[in-house]
Amino acid sequence: MTGQDRPGLIGRDRARLWHPYAPASPDLPLWEVEAADGVRLRLRGEDGIRHEVVDAMSSWWSVIHGYRNPVLDAAARRQLESFSHVMFGGLTHAPAVELAERLVDMAPSAPGRPGLERVFLADSGSVAVEVALKLALQFQSTSGHPLRQRFLSIRGGYHGDTFAAMGVCDPVDGMHSAFPGLLAGNVFAPRPPAAASATPETVGAWASVLADIAAAHSGELAAIIVEPLLQGAGGMHAYPPECLNVLRNVADRHGLLLIFDEIATGFGRTGELFAADHAGVVPDIMCVGKALTGGYLTLAAMLCTGEIASTVSRGQAGALLHGPTFMGNPLACAVANASLGIIGDGGWRADVARIGAGLETGLAPALALEAVRDVRTIGAVGVIELHNAVDVTAVTAAAIRQGVWVRPFRNLVYTMPPYISTAADIEQITAGMTAAVAEVHGRVVHERVPARAGGAA
Questions:
Q1: pLDDT digit string (tens) for 263-279?
Q2: Which of 232, 346, 384, 395 has the least C-beta neighbours within 10 A?
Q3: Which residues are annotated as a binding site for pyridoxal 5'-phosphate?
Q4: How deeply is 334 buried, as exposed, middle or buried, from its count of CB atoms within 10 A (0-12, 13-18, 19+)?
Q5: What amino acid positions are annotated as catalytic residues?
Q6: Which residues contribute to the annotated binding site for substrate?
């Protein structure tokens, strides 16, 4: 593309492309990415002005090792020299087998609890959730419970944009109203209390309500599905680890499967390898994605116990009824193995702790802004919550002027930075987020006591 063509790129985009959660031909500002390296993006706006920004979003939480990572680049090149894709029906290959073995070895485990032994490779997080829900239904039917056709979820959850996944998202803040009559009528319990303000009494009260709802619907429920410890796109709500034990006990009591959606929380983001590890709880089914390939290629996985796999395999269908064209894509699997190899070295734990401390310190001044309701952190996640909806366009532009890329939503300005972010990067992110909120939404009114990690949503 010549220099003369480049200024028209965003206009050409508007004429042909459709962006997520946006109208066709949006009036919202767009920035062209000209280059990406490490934790930085080089952007060019419609006005032709260039900005170098720190990517505070890890490209929707996936680029945990940074852009142009030499280990991941090399893995992709090596696989391209052999083959980039083959169908997974009737064929197999080393990258997929190695990836399944790695995932099983890394999965949550506990003494006396069946481990996650079988892996189904999918193309995206939403598809992994679809597969998990299908699996639960097939398992219950084969086990002699064909009426167990619904799911128990919790308010504030988000599990993806495909139809079954939408059906277990929050029924009010999700997309149920846009598709009346088409989404399954599932059962919802209140969201758990916020981690920062929870007490044994509030957790106990929530557990009692959850238990009552599960008991009332147990004959029609196949599984419980939740995002463990941190609800992401539903509001960045952190809740206490002991709630995962409650969910495990309720599922066992009523013969329900427990599904953990670790697509956003997996691979270290909350400070443990998986959010489930904070409580030592092992789910029956677990979904992973996003950071699985370090943000290089789209890939997700569904893991389940051996009992579930064998039960469904001897059912009437004789198979799990799903099979994506790009299932087990060798190129994606090879990069995922390289990404998990970096995770396996263990350095992520110190990185996440360091980032978390920097976020907690750096975002605390935002509490002095009149528009800010709460500031909270968990692992390598930092959130500024406003009283009212964020002016997404204005805050995004203001943050770019501060050298930071964020993508706010609802009333939240948040960050999930790459694990390779330095202390200076985190300082720039937190200062830029606070300055952007201050510029667009408010003024300093007084000092407040900083919220503890895992504050209320």
A1: 999 999 999 999 999 99
A2: 346
A3: 125-126, 261, 324-325
A4: buried
A5: 21, 158, 261, 290
A6: 60, 158, 290, 323, 407
